[in-house]
Amino acid sequence: MDVLHLPSLIGSKSTIILFYKWRVVIYLVILCCLYIFLWCLTPSELVSEFIKTDEPHECVADRLKPFATKLRDLDAFLIQPENTQTNLLTFTGNGFIGCSFQDDHIVIHNNGFLSQKLKIPVLITLDVHGYVNFKALLLDIRDGLMHKMSCFKHVNELCVSSGTTVYAHRRYPSLLIQTFRVYNPMDWENTVKVDKGNLRNWTELVSLRFIRLQQKSEL
């Protein structure tokens, strides 16, 4: 006849439960450390916050602060759209495809060069109805990115801020990527118009949509 030693079984079970609890704690600590490490590696221009101001030029200047070092080291160039005397253009490409904020064309590889222009609007533009748009363009030649910072201003109201970044993918040569952030600091909703350009000849695509931007929210 077998005899069960209950105290030893209970002790073993308690040891197993304690082991699993400590393993969960260790995993959580490792994940937290990994998150902090990745956050520290994230470029400042991606984690910078929008300020609350009713001065559009101050708003635009604030969006340019994360790029101060690159501008000083000539790794990036600032382009003011209202300055018609400048010959500088924003451009991003990967040798197979490219585009610019100032040109409503996509450029593709032809005969060894990016020389073939197609009148296909590829970039999304944002607009807030009834607001004046103050913007600045920035060409990051070190990382191959182009940025557009916009501040939409209405009378006696805070600025609605937006920032968009465009780059041509290095691994997938036919892919252009555009990211954008929009911040509404006010106590009421605003409607942001997302315009894909003139696509009347492209019947399968939707060229215009509206997004309701909640008060004091970021998209």
TrEMBL record:
The keyword Methyltransferase does not apply. The chain crosses the membrane at residues 20-42. It is a single-pass type I membrane protein. It is found in: Membrane. Keywords: Glycoprotein, Membrane, Signal, Transmembrane, Transmembrane helix. This is SJCHGC05446 protein. GO terms for cellular component: membrane. The lineage of its organism: Eukaryota, Metazoa, Spiralia, Lophotrochozoa, Platyhelminthes.
